[in-house]
Amino acid sequence: MPVDKNTIHSSDTIYDTFIVGAGISGIAAAIKLKKEGYHHFKIIEKAKRVGGTWRENTYPGCGCDVPSSLYSYSFAPSSKWSRLFALQPEILEYLEDVSDKFNITPLIEFENELEQAAWDDTRHLWVMDTSKGQYLARTVIFATGPITESQIPNLPGLETFKGETFHSARWNHDIDLTGKRVAVVGTGASAIQFIPQIQPKVKSLVVFQRTAPWVLPKPDLQLGTKGKMLMDKLPVIQSTWRKAVAGSLNVINFGLRNPSVLEPVSTAVKQLLKVQIKDKALREAVTPDFTLGCKRILFANNYYPALQASNTQLIPHGMTRIEGNTVISANGERHEVDVIIWGTGFNVSHPPIGRKVIDAKGQRIADLWKKTSPEAYLGATLRDVPNAFLVLGPNVLVYDSFIGLAETQLDYIIDGLKLIKSKSISKLTIKPEVLEAHNQKVQKHLKGTVFNAGGCRSYYLDENGRNFAAWPWSLATLKKRLSHFNMADYDVVIQSSNKAGKKAA
Ligand SMILES: Cc1cc2nc3c(=O)[nH]c(=O)nc-3n(C[C@H](O)[C@H](O)[C@H](O)COP(=O)(O)OP(=O)(O)OC[C@H]3O[C@@H](n4cnc5c(N)ncnc54)[C@H](O)[C@@H]3O)c2cc1C
Protein backbone atom coordinates (compact mmCIF):
# COMPACT_ATOMS: atom_id res chain seq x y z
CA MET A 1 0.00 0.00 0.00
CA PRO A 2 1.49 3.38 -0.93
CA VAL A 3 2.47 5.42 2.12
CA ASP A 4 1.22 8.96 2.39
CA LYS A 5 4.17 11.39 2.14
CA ASN A 6 2.89 13.24 5.17
CA THR A 7 2.67 10.17 7.35
CA ILE A 8 4.41 10.92 10.64
CA HIS A 9 6.11 7.76 11.83
CA SER A 10 7.82 9.52 14.69
CA SER A 11 4.97 9.11 17.12
CA ASP A 12 5.10 5.33 16.61
CA THR A 13 8.73 4.59 17.03
CA ILE A 14 12.23 5.80 17.71
CA TYR A 15 14.72 3.66 15.81
CA ASP A 16 18.06 2.83 17.39
CA THR A 17 19.73 3.29 14.01
CA PHE A 18 18.64 4.58 10.64
CA ILE A 19 20.62 3.47 7.58
CA VAL A 20 20.36 5.59 4.45
CA GLY A 21 21.25 3.77 1.21
CA ALA A 22 21.34 0.12 0.15
CA GLY A 23 24.48 -0.08 -1.94
CA ILE A 24 27.51 -2.08 -0.90
CA SER A 25 27.89 -0.06 2.31
CA GLY A 26 24.23 -0.01 3.40
CA ILE A 27 23.79 -3.75 2.84
CA ALA A 28 26.95 -4.48 4.84
CA ALA A 29 25.83 -2.12 7.61
CA ALA A 30 22.52 -3.93 7.97
CA ILE A 31 24.17 -7.38 7.92
CA LYS A 32 26.72 -6.37 10.54
CA LEU A 33 24.09 -4.74 12.77
CA LYS A 34 21.97 -7.88 12.64
CA LYS A 35 24.99 -10.01 13.49
CA GLU A 36 25.54 -7.88 16.59
CA GLY A 37 21.97 -8.54 17.69
CA TYR A 38 20.59 -5.15 16.62
CA HIS A 39 17.12 -5.46 15.18
CA HIS A 40 15.61 -2.09 15.90
CA PHE A 41 16.98 -0.33 12.87
CA LYS A 42 15.52 0.98 9.62
CA ILE A 43 17.07 1.02 6.18
CA ILE A 44 15.79 3.16 3.33
CA GLU A 45 16.81 3.26 -0.33
CA LYS A 46 15.63 5.82 -2.86
CA ALA A 47 15.72 3.38 -5.80
CA LYS A 48 13.68 0.26 -6.50
CA ARG A 49 16.55 -2.20 -5.98
CA VAL A 50 19.75 -2.56 -4.01
CA GLY A 51 23.16 -2.12 -5.62
CA GLY A 52 23.96 1.62 -5.74
CA THR A 53 26.89 2.10 -8.14
CA TRP A 54 26.24 -1.29 -9.75
CA ARG A 55 22.57 -0.56 -10.32
CA GLU A 56 23.19 2.89 -11.78
CA ASN A 57 26.18 2.23 -14.05
CA THR A 58 25.04 -0.04 -16.85
CA TYR A 59 27.28 1.14 -19.69
CA PRO A 60 28.67 -1.56 -21.99
CA GLY A 61 31.82 -3.13 -20.55
CA CYS A 62 31.16 -1.79 -17.02
CA GLY A 63 32.98 -3.90 -14.45
CA CYS A 64 35.28 -3.77 -11.48
CA ASP A 65 38.98 -3.01 -11.74
CA VAL A 66 39.85 -4.80 -8.52
CA PRO A 67 39.62 -8.62 -8.83
CA SER A 68 36.23 -9.91 -7.69
CA SER A 69 37.83 -12.21 -5.12
CA LEU A 70 38.68 -8.99 -3.25
CA TYR A 71 35.84 -6.84 -4.60
CA SER A 72 33.33 -8.91 -2.60
CA TYR A 73 32.40 -9.09 1.07
CA SER A 74 34.82 -10.91 3.39
CA PHE A 75 31.81 -12.72 4.89
CA ALA A 76 30.27 -13.71 1.55
CA PRO A 77 32.82 -15.15 -0.89
CA SER A 78 31.34 -16.24 -4.20
CA SER A 79 32.32 -19.09 -6.46
CA LYS A 80 30.01 -17.81 -9.21
CA TRP A 81 32.24 -15.15 -10.79
CA SER A 82 32.64 -15.94 -14.46
CA ARG A 83 35.80 -13.79 -14.75
CA LEU A 84 38.57 -12.64 -12.46
CA PHE A 85 37.20 -9.10 -12.88
CA ALA A 86 33.42 -9.44 -12.94
CA LEU A 87 31.19 -7.26 -15.08
CA GLN A 88 28.39 -5.06 -13.75
CA PRO A 89 25.43 -7.47 -14.23
CA GLU A 90 27.22 -10.14 -12.16
CA ILE A 91 28.22 -7.68 -9.42
CA LEU A 92 24.63 -6.44 -9.17
CA GLU A 93 23.35 -10.03 -9.03
CA TYR A 94 25.91 -10.80 -6.31
CA LEU A 95 24.73 -7.84 -4.20
CA GLU A 96 21.10 -8.90 -4.62
CA ASP A 97 21.99 -12.48 -3.67
CA VAL A 98 23.87 -11.37 -0.55
CA SER A 99 21.06 -9.05 0.46
CA ASP A 100 18.57 -11.92 0.08
CA LYS A 101 20.77 -14.56 1.71
CA PHE A 102 21.27 -12.46 4.84
CA ASN A 103 17.55 -11.49 4.89
CA ILE A 104 18.25 -7.80 4.42
CA THR A 105 16.04 -7.24 1.36
CA PRO A 106 12.75 -7.51 3.32
CA LEU A 107 14.03 -4.90 5.78
CA ILE A 108 14.70 -2.29 3.10
CA GLU A 109 12.10 0.33 2.40
CA PHE A 110 12.63 0.97 -1.31
CA GLU A 111 11.67 4.12 -3.21
CA ASN A 112 12.04 6.09 -0.01
CA GLU A 113 14.43 9.02 -0.33
CA LEU A 114 15.96 10.92 2.55
CA GLU A 115 15.13 14.57 1.98
CA GLN A 116 16.51 16.03 5.18
CA ALA A 117 18.18 14.72 8.31
CA ALA A 118 18.24 17.25 11.15
CA TRP A 119 19.72 16.76 14.61
CA ASP A 120 17.30 17.77 17.36
CA ASP A 121 19.62 18.98 20.10
CA THR A 122 16.85 19.10 22.70
CA ARG A 123 15.68 15.52 22.38
CA HIS A 124 19.03 14.17 21.18
CA LEU A 125 17.41 12.53 18.18
CA TRP A 126 17.75 12.59 14.41
CA VAL A 127 14.61 13.78 12.65
CA MET A 128 14.59 12.10 9.28
CA ASP A 129 12.29 13.63 6.67
CA THR A 130 11.87 11.24 3.78
CA SER A 131 9.68 11.01 0.69
CA LYS A 132 7.48 8.60 2.67
CA GLY A 133 7.22 10.55 5.88
CA GLN A 134 9.10 11.44 9.02
CA TYR A 135 11.06 9.11 11.28
CA LEU A 136 13.04 9.52 14.49
CA ALA A 137 16.29 7.76 15.23
CA ARG A 138 18.96 7.87 17.91
CA THR A 139 21.81 7.22 15.48
CA VAL A 140 22.30 7.33 11.71
CA ILE A 141 24.60 5.64 9.20
CA PHE A 142 24.85 7.59 5.95
CA ALA A 143 25.71 4.93 3.36
CA THR A 144 24.83 7.19 0.46
CA GLY A 145 27.93 6.63 -1.64
CA PRO A 146 31.14 8.43 -2.53
CA ILE A 147 30.88 8.40 -6.35
CA THR A 148 27.31 9.12 -7.37
CA GLU A 149 26.82 12.52 -8.95
CA SER A 150 27.73 12.50 -12.63
CA GLN A 151 29.55 15.54 -13.93
CA ILE A 152 28.83 17.11 -17.32
CA PRO A 153 30.84 20.14 -18.47
CA ASN A 154 28.72 23.14 -19.23
CA LEU A 155 30.20 23.78 -22.67
CA PRO A 156 29.23 26.86 -24.66
CA GLY A 157 26.71 25.90 -27.33
CA LEU A 158 25.63 22.63 -25.70
CA GLU A 159 22.02 23.77 -25.99
CA THR A 160 22.41 24.03 -29.80
CA PHE A 161 23.31 20.34 -30.16
CA LYS A 162 20.59 18.52 -32.10
CA GLY A 163 21.74 14.95 -31.48
CA GLU A 164 21.59 12.74 -28.41
CA THR A 165 23.78 13.17 -25.33
CA PHE A 166 24.10 11.12 -22.19
CA HIS A 167 26.57 10.45 -19.37
CA SER A 168 28.16 7.01 -18.98
CA ALA A 169 26.48 6.65 -15.57
CA ARG A 170 23.06 7.20 -17.17
CA TRP A 171 23.62 5.13 -20.29
CA ASN A 172 20.72 5.53 -22.69
CA HIS A 173 20.12 1.98 -23.91
CA ASP A 174 17.27 3.20 -26.14
CA ILE A 175 19.79 4.81 -28.47
CA ASP A 176 21.19 2.42 -31.03
CA LEU A 177 24.73 3.60 -31.77
CA THR A 178 25.06 1.41 -34.87
CA GLY A 179 26.29 3.48 -37.80
CA LYS A 180 26.30 6.72 -35.77
CA ARG A 181 29.02 9.37 -35.57
CA VAL A 182 29.90 9.42 -31.88
CA ALA A 183 32.01 11.74 -29.74
CA VAL A 184 33.27 10.50 -26.38
CA VAL A 185 34.47 13.15 -23.98
CA GLY A 186 36.96 11.88 -21.41
CA THR A 187 39.33 8.95 -21.09
CA GLY A 188 38.87 7.95 -17.45
CA ALA A 189 37.92 4.68 -15.77
CA SER A 190 34.45 4.38 -17.35
CA ALA A 191 35.42 5.61 -20.85
CA ILE A 192 38.24 3.10 -21.26
CA GLN A 193 35.71 0.36 -20.50
CA PHE A 194 32.94 1.43 -22.89
CA ILE A 195 35.03 2.77 -25.81
CA PRO A 196 36.15 -0.74 -26.91
CA GLN A 197 32.53 -1.94 -26.70
CA ILE A 198 31.00 0.75 -28.90
CA GLN A 199 33.86 1.23 -31.38
CA PRO A 200 33.00 -1.82 -33.57
CA LYS A 201 29.40 -0.70 -34.12
CA VAL A 202 29.67 3.06 -34.63
CA LYS A 203 30.42 4.72 -37.95
CA SER A 204 33.04 7.00 -36.49
CA LEU A 205 34.36 7.61 -33.00
CA VAL A 206 36.09 10.81 -31.91
CA VAL A 207 37.65 10.54 -28.47
CA PHE A 208 38.45 13.79 -26.67
CA GLN A 209 41.30 13.28 -24.23
CA ARG A 210 42.37 16.10 -21.93
CA THR A 211 44.86 13.99 -19.98
CA ALA A 212 46.30 10.67 -21.09
CA PRO A 213 45.69 8.06 -18.36
CA TRP A 214 48.04 5.27 -17.33
CA VAL A 215 46.48 2.11 -18.75
CA LEU A 216 48.09 -1.15 -17.66
CA PRO A 217 47.35 -4.62 -19.02
CA LYS A 218 44.42 -6.20 -17.17
CA PRO A 219 45.24 -9.65 -15.80
CA ASP A 220 41.68 -10.77 -16.53
CA LEU A 221 40.61 -14.33 -17.26
CA GLN A 222 37.38 -16.14 -17.93
CA LEU A 223 36.64 -18.77 -15.27
CA GLY A 224 35.23 -21.99 -16.67
CA THR A 225 32.94 -24.47 -14.93
CA LYS A 226 35.91 -26.42 -13.55
CA GLY A 227 37.49 -23.29 -12.08
CA LYS A 228 34.21 -22.28 -10.44
CA MET A 229 33.69 -25.81 -9.11
CA LEU A 230 37.15 -25.80 -7.58
CA MET A 231 36.46 -22.44 -5.92
CA ASP A 232 33.19 -23.84 -4.58
CA LYS A 233 34.59 -27.12 -3.26
CA LEU A 234 37.86 -25.73 -1.95
CA PRO A 235 37.16 -22.36 -0.32
CA VAL A 236 40.82 -22.28 0.75
CA ILE A 237 41.75 -21.58 -2.90
CA GLN A 238 39.52 -18.54 -2.84
CA SER A 239 40.75 -17.22 0.47
CA THR A 240 44.37 -17.73 -0.58
CA TRP A 241 43.70 -15.95 -3.87
CA ARG A 242 41.96 -13.10 -2.01
CA LYS A 243 45.00 -12.71 0.24
CA ALA A 244 47.36 -12.79 -2.74
CA VAL A 245 45.38 -10.04 -4.50
CA ALA A 246 45.32 -7.96 -1.31
CA GLY A 247 49.07 -8.45 -0.99
CA SER A 248 49.77 -7.23 -4.51
CA LEU A 249 47.55 -4.15 -3.98
CA ASN A 250 49.53 -3.44 -0.82
CA VAL A 251 52.68 -3.32 -2.92
CA ILE A 252 51.01 -0.81 -5.27
CA ASN A 253 49.94 1.22 -2.22
CA PHE A 254 53.48 1.28 -0.95
CA GLY A 255 54.55 2.64 -4.34
CA LEU A 256 51.89 5.35 -4.23
CA ARG A 257 53.32 6.59 -0.96
CA ASN A 258 56.88 6.23 -2.24
CA PRO A 259 56.65 7.18 -5.94
CA SER A 260 60.25 6.26 -6.81
CA VAL A 261 59.36 2.58 -6.17
CA LEU A 262 56.97 2.66 -9.13
CA GLU A 263 59.51 4.11 -11.57
CA PRO A 264 60.53 0.71 -13.03
CA VAL A 265 56.82 -0.06 -13.57
CA SER A 266 56.32 3.25 -15.42
CA THR A 267 59.35 2.52 -17.60
CA ALA A 268 58.06 -0.97 -18.38
CA VAL A 269 54.58 0.37 -19.23
CA LYS A 270 56.10 2.97 -21.59
CA GLN A 271 58.20 0.25 -23.28
CA LEU A 272 55.07 -1.86 -23.66
CA LEU A 273 53.31 1.07 -25.34
CA LYS A 274 55.85 0.78 -28.18
CA VAL A 275 54.59 -2.73 -28.81
CA GLN A 276 50.94 -1.86 -28.28
CA ILE A 277 50.85 1.27 -30.47
CA LYS A 278 52.79 1.44 -33.71
CA ASP A 279 51.80 4.97 -34.73
CA LYS A 280 54.31 7.34 -33.13
CA ALA A 281 51.97 10.35 -32.97
CA LEU A 282 49.20 8.33 -31.33
CA ARG A 283 51.68 6.74 -28.94
CA GLU A 284 52.97 10.14 -27.89
CA ALA A 285 49.42 11.39 -27.47
CA VAL A 286 48.48 8.55 -25.10
CA THR A 287 51.71 8.66 -23.10
CA PRO A 288 50.89 10.06 -19.65
CA ASP A 289 52.78 13.15 -18.54
CA PHE A 290 52.31 12.61 -14.82
CA THR A 291 53.60 10.06 -12.30
CA LEU A 292 51.97 6.63 -12.33
CA GLY A 293 49.33 6.45 -9.59
CA CYS A 294 48.64 10.19 -9.35
CA LYS A 295 45.24 9.42 -10.90
CA ARG A 296 43.56 6.03 -10.43
CA ILE A 297 45.57 3.40 -12.35
CA LEU A 298 43.44 1.93 -15.13
CA PHE A 299 43.55 -1.63 -16.46
CA ALA A 300 42.42 -2.72 -19.93
CA ASN A 301 43.54 -4.95 -22.77
CA ASN A 302 41.10 -3.71 -25.39
CA TYR A 303 41.39 0.08 -25.04
CA TYR A 304 44.50 0.74 -27.15
CA PRO A 305 43.31 -1.63 -29.95
CA ALA A 306 40.01 0.33 -30.05
CA LEU A 307 41.91 3.64 -30.34
CA GLN A 308 43.84 2.25 -33.30
CA ALA A 309 40.75 1.07 -35.20
CA SER A 310 40.25 2.76 -38.57
CA ASN A 311 37.00 4.44 -37.46
CA THR A 312 38.52 5.97 -34.29
CA GLN A 313 40.29 9.28 -33.95
CA LEU A 314 41.90 10.42 -30.70
CA ILE A 315 41.94 14.17 -30.18
CA PRO A 316 44.51 14.90 -27.46
CA HIS A 317 42.55 17.96 -26.32
CA GLY A 318 39.37 18.67 -24.44
CA MET A 319 36.09 19.52 -26.18
CA THR A 320 35.55 23.22 -25.63
CA ARG A 321 32.60 24.30 -27.76
CA ILE A 322 29.58 22.99 -29.63
CA GLU A 323 27.90 24.58 -32.67
CA GLY A 324 24.82 22.65 -33.73
CA ASN A 325 26.10 19.19 -34.55
CA THR A 326 29.71 20.32 -34.74
CA VAL A 327 31.90 19.66 -31.73
CA ILE A 328 35.07 21.71 -31.41
CA SER A 329 38.24 20.83 -29.53
CA ALA A 330 40.67 23.13 -27.72
CA ASN A 331 42.99 23.05 -30.77
CA GLY A 332 40.15 24.16 -33.05
CA GLU A 333 39.43 20.81 -34.75
CA ARG A 334 35.79 20.46 -35.81
CA HIS A 335 33.82 17.23 -36.07
CA GLU A 336 30.22 16.52 -37.04
CA VAL A 337 28.63 14.01 -34.66
CA ASP A 338 25.22 12.50 -33.96
CA VAL A 339 25.81 11.50 -30.33
CA ILE A 340 27.94 12.85 -27.48
CA ILE A 341 28.75 10.49 -24.63
CA TRP A 342 30.10 12.14 -21.50
CA GLY A 343 32.79 10.00 -19.91
CA THR A 344 33.54 12.93 -17.67
CA GLY A 345 33.32 11.25 -14.30
CA PHE A 346 31.70 12.35 -11.08
CA ASN A 347 31.57 15.27 -8.71
CA VAL A 348 33.06 13.59 -5.67
CA SER A 349 34.41 16.51 -3.68
CA HIS A 350 30.96 17.67 -2.57
CA PRO A 351 28.91 14.53 -1.81
CA PRO A 352 25.15 15.14 -2.20
CA ILE A 353 24.47 13.96 1.35
CA GLY A 354 25.87 17.33 2.49
CA ARG A 355 22.78 19.01 1.06
CA LYS A 356 20.50 16.87 3.21
CA VAL A 357 22.09 17.07 6.66
CA ILE A 358 21.55 19.79 9.26
CA ASP A 359 24.08 19.73 12.09
CA ALA A 360 23.69 20.41 15.82
CA LYS A 361 24.14 24.14 15.21
CA GLY A 362 21.35 24.19 12.64
CA GLN A 363 23.76 24.58 9.72
CA ARG A 364 23.35 22.74 6.44
CA ILE A 365 26.53 20.71 5.87
CA ALA A 366 26.69 21.61 2.16
CA ASP A 367 26.91 25.30 3.13
CA LEU A 368 29.95 24.51 5.27
CA TRP A 369 31.47 22.54 2.38
CA LYS A 370 30.96 25.41 -0.10
CA LYS A 371 34.42 26.86 0.31
CA THR A 372 36.24 23.58 0.81
CA SER A 373 35.69 19.86 0.47
CA PRO A 374 34.59 17.83 3.50
CA GLU A 375 36.82 16.61 6.28
CA ALA A 376 35.99 13.91 8.77
CA TYR A 377 37.57 11.86 11.50
CA LEU A 378 38.69 8.52 10.01
CA GLY A 379 36.30 9.17 7.14
CA ALA A 380 33.37 8.55 9.47
CA THR A 381 32.45 11.35 11.87
CA LEU A 382 31.86 15.01 11.09
CA ARG A 383 32.19 18.15 13.18
CA ASP A 384 28.97 19.05 15.05
CA VAL A 385 27.14 16.05 13.59
CA PRO A 386 26.41 13.88 16.64
CA ASN A 387 25.44 10.20 16.62
CA ALA A 388 25.98 9.98 12.87
CA PHE A 389 28.48 8.07 10.78
CA LEU A 390 29.48 8.33 7.16
CA VAL A 391 30.69 5.28 5.23
CA LEU A 392 33.49 5.89 2.70
CA GLY A 393 33.74 9.52 3.76
CA PRO A 394 36.76 11.80 3.25
CA ASN A 395 40.39 10.66 3.31
CA VAL A 396 40.06 6.90 3.65
CA LEU A 397 40.76 5.99 0.05
CA VAL A 398 43.57 3.49 -0.38
CA TYR A 399 44.25 1.55 -3.55
CA ASP A 400 42.15 -1.46 -2.60
CA SER A 401 38.60 -2.73 -2.77
CA PHE A 402 36.05 -0.16 -1.60
CA ILE A 403 34.11 -3.10 -0.19
CA GLY A 404 36.96 -3.92 2.18
CA LEU A 405 37.29 -0.26 3.13
CA ALA A 406 33.55 0.01 3.84
CA GLU A 407 33.66 -3.15 5.96
CA THR A 408 36.61 -1.87 7.98
CA GLN A 409 34.87 1.43 8.60
CA LEU A 410 31.62 -0.28 9.51
CA ASP A 411 33.36 -2.37 12.17
CA TYR A 412 34.51 0.92 13.73
CA ILE A 413 31.05 2.47 13.39
CA ILE A 414 29.31 -0.52 14.94
CA ASP A 415 31.75 -0.49 17.86
CA GLY A 416 30.69 3.13 18.34
CA LEU A 417 27.00 2.21 18.22
CA LYS A 418 27.56 -0.55 20.77
CA LEU A 419 29.25 1.90 23.13
CA ILE A 420 26.44 4.41 22.67
CA LYS A 421 23.98 1.72 23.72
CA SER A 422 25.93 0.07 26.51
CA LYS A 423 26.94 3.36 28.13
CA SER A 424 23.51 5.01 27.61
CA ILE A 425 25.06 7.84 25.63
CA SER A 426 22.50 10.22 24.19
CA LYS A 427 24.94 12.42 22.27
CA LEU A 428 28.36 11.56 20.90
CA THR A 429 30.30 14.12 18.87
CA ILE A 430 33.85 14.10 17.59
CA LYS A 431 36.00 16.54 19.57
CA PRO A 432 36.93 19.46 17.31
CA GLU A 433 40.57 19.37 18.47
CA VAL A 434 40.82 15.63 17.65
CA LEU A 435 39.32 16.22 14.20
CA GLU A 436 41.65 19.14 13.52
CA ALA A 437 44.80 17.36 14.70
CA HIS A 438 43.89 14.28 12.64
CA ASN A 439 43.29 16.27 9.46
CA GLN A 440 46.42 18.38 9.87
CA LYS A 441 48.43 15.17 10.09
CA VAL A 442 46.60 13.65 7.11
CA GLN A 443 47.25 16.72 4.95
CA LYS A 444 50.90 16.91 6.04
CA HIS A 445 51.57 13.28 5.14
CA LEU A 446 49.71 13.51 1.83
CA LYS A 447 52.20 16.10 0.62
CA GLY A 448 54.85 13.55 -0.34
CA THR A 449 52.47 11.01 -1.86
CA VAL A 450 51.98 10.60 -5.57
CA PHE A 451 48.40 11.91 -5.28
CA ASN A 452 49.62 15.38 -4.34
CA ALA A 453 53.11 15.43 -5.83
CA GLY A 454 52.58 13.38 -8.99
CA GLY A 455 51.88 16.31 -11.31
CA CYS A 456 48.24 15.59 -12.15
CA ARG A 457 44.81 16.97 -11.29
CA SER A 458 42.85 14.02 -10.08
CA TYR A 459 39.44 13.72 -8.48
CA TYR A 460 41.25 13.27 -5.16
CA LEU A 461 41.83 17.04 -5.16
CA ASP A 462 39.10 19.63 -4.71
CA GLU A 463 38.92 22.94 -6.53
CA ASN A 464 41.45 24.41 -4.06
CA GLY A 465 43.91 21.60 -4.67
CA ARG A 466 43.21 20.08 -1.25
CA ASN A 467 43.27 16.29 -1.17
CA PHE A 468 39.98 15.29 0.48
CA ALA A 469 40.00 11.66 -0.64
CA ALA A 470 43.21 9.75 -0.03
CA TRP A 471 44.53 8.13 3.13
CA PRO A 472 48.26 8.87 3.28
CA TRP A 473 49.37 5.73 5.10
CA SER A 474 49.02 2.00 4.53
CA LEU A 475 45.82 -0.03 4.60
CA ALA A 476 47.20 -1.82 7.66
CA THR A 477 47.48 1.54 9.45
CA LEU A 478 43.92 2.45 8.47
CA LYS A 479 42.69 -0.92 9.75
CA LYS A 480 44.60 -0.44 13.00
CA ARG A 481 43.19 3.06 13.51
CA LEU A 482 39.67 1.76 12.87
CA SER A 483 40.05 -1.36 15.00
CA HIS A 484 39.32 0.47 18.24
CA PHE A 485 36.64 3.06 18.89
CA ASN A 486 38.39 5.40 21.29
CA MET A 487 35.77 7.15 23.40
CA ALA A 488 38.36 9.72 24.44
CA ASP A 489 38.14 11.14 20.89
CA TYR A 490 34.51 12.09 21.45
CA ASP A 491 32.48 14.46 23.58
CA VAL A 492 29.66 12.48 25.12
CA VAL A 493 26.45 13.25 26.96
CA ILE A 494 25.00 10.46 29.08
CA GLN A 495 21.27 9.87 28.93
CA SER A 496 19.39 10.91 32.02
CA SER A 497 15.79 11.40 33.05
CA ASN A 498 16.61 15.09 32.88
CA LYS A 499 16.31 15.98 29.18
CA ALA A 500 19.44 18.09 29.06
CA GLY A 501 21.46 15.04 29.99
CA LYS A 502 24.71 15.17 31.85
CA LYS A 503 28.16 15.62 30.42
CA ALA A 504 30.41 12.63 30.89
CA ALA A 505 33.70 13.10 32.66
C1 LIG B 1 31.65 2.89 -12.66
C2 LIG B 1 32.27 2.64 -11.33
C3 LIG B 1 33.13 1.57 -11.16
C4 LIG B 1 33.71 1.34 -9.91
N1 LIG B 1 34.58 0.29 -9.80
C5 LIG B 1 35.15 0.05 -8.60
C6 LIG B 1 36.08 -1.05 -8.45
O1 LIG B 1 36.40 -1.75 -9.38
N2 LIG B 1 36.62 -1.23 -7.23
C7 LIG B 1 36.33 -0.44 -6.16
O2 LIG B 1 36.84 -0.67 -5.08
N3 LIG B 1 35.44 0.60 -6.28
C8 LIG B 1 34.87 0.85 -7.46
N4 LIG B 1 33.99 1.90 -7.59
C9 LIG B 1 33.65 2.71 -6.41
C10 LIG B 1 32.24 2.33 -5.89
O3 LIG B 1 31.48 3.50 -5.79
C11 LIG B 1 32.31 1.65 -4.58
O4 LIG B 1 33.09 0.49 -4.76
C12 LIG B 1 30.96 1.19 -3.98
O5 LIG B 1 30.05 0.78 -4.95
C13 LIG B 1 30.34 2.23 -3.09
O6 LIG B 1 29.24 1.65 -2.45
P1 LIG B 1 28.31 2.50 -1.48
O7 LIG B 1 27.24 1.58 -1.00
O8 LIG B 1 29.13 3.17 -0.45
O9 LIG B 1 27.72 3.64 -2.40
P2 LIG B 1 26.72 3.51 -3.63
O10 LIG B 1 27.01 2.30 -4.41
O11 LIG B 1 26.75 4.82 -4.33
O12 LIG B 1 25.31 3.31 -2.94
C14 LIG B 1 24.65 4.35 -2.25
C15 LIG B 1 23.17 4.04 -2.19
O13 LIG B 1 22.52 5.05 -1.42
C16 LIG B 1 21.31 5.42 -2.07
N5 LIG B 1 21.02 6.80 -1.69
C17 LIG B 1 21.78 7.90 -1.91
N6 LIG B 1 21.18 9.00 -1.42
C18 LIG B 1 20.03 8.60 -0.86
C19 LIG B 1 18.97 9.29 -0.20
N7 LIG B 1 19.01 10.61 -0.02
N8 LIG B 1 17.92 8.56 0.25
C20 LIG B 1 17.88 7.21 0.08
N9 LIG B 1 18.84 6.51 -0.56
C21 LIG B 1 19.91 7.19 -1.02
C22 LIG B 1 21.64 5.28 -3.55
O14 LIG B 1 20.46 5.15 -4.33
C23 LIG B 1 22.51 4.03 -3.56
O15 LIG B 1 21.76 2.87 -3.74
C24 LIG B 1 33.41 2.18 -8.82
C25 LIG B 1 32.56 3.27 -9.00
C26 LIG B 1 32.00 3.50 -10.24
C27 LIG B 1 31.09 4.69 -10.40
Secondary structure layout:
Blueprint: E1 14-20, H1 24-35, E2 41-44, H2 53-56, H3 88-101, E3 108-109, E4 114-120, E5 125-130, E6 133-142, E7 164-167, E8 181-185, H4 191-198, E9 204-208, E10 215-216, H5 225-233, H6 235-257, H7 263-276, H8 280-286, E11 298-299, H9 303-307, E12 312-315, E13 319-323, E14 326-329, E15 334-336, E16 339-342, E17 357-358, H10 365-368, E18 388-390, H11 402-422, E19 425-430, H12 432-446, H13 450-453, H14 475-482, E20 490-494, E21 502-503
Parallel strand pairs: 1-2, 1-6, 2-3, 4-17, 6-18, 7-16, 8-9, 8-16, 9-12, 10-11
Antiparallel strand pairs: 4-5, 5-6, 13-14, 14-15, 19-20, 20-21
Helix pairs in contact: 1-11, 5-6
The structure holds flavin-adenine dinucleotide.
Flavin-adenine dinucleotide (FAD) is lined by residues 20-26, 44-47, 52-53, 57, 62, 64-66, 71, 113-114, 143-148, 190, 356, 391-392, 401-402, 406.
**Going by CATH, what is the homologous superfamily of the largest domain?**
FAD/NAD(P)-binding domain
- What would the principal axes of the Cα set say about the shape? globular
Protein structure class: alpha/beta
User: What ligands can be seen in this structure?
Assistant: flavin-adenine dinucleotide
CATH class of the largest domain: Alpha Beta
How far apart the termini lie comes to 49 Å
Q: Helical percent range?
A: 25-40%
**CATH 2nd-level architecture of the largest domain:** 3-Layer(bba) Sandwich
Low-confidence regions: 1-6, 497-505
Record field, number of beta strands? 21
Query: How is the biggest beta sheet arranged?
Result: 8 strands, mixed
What is the total domain count? 2
Give me the number of helical elements: 14
CATH fold-type name of the largest domain = FAD/NAD(P)-binding domain
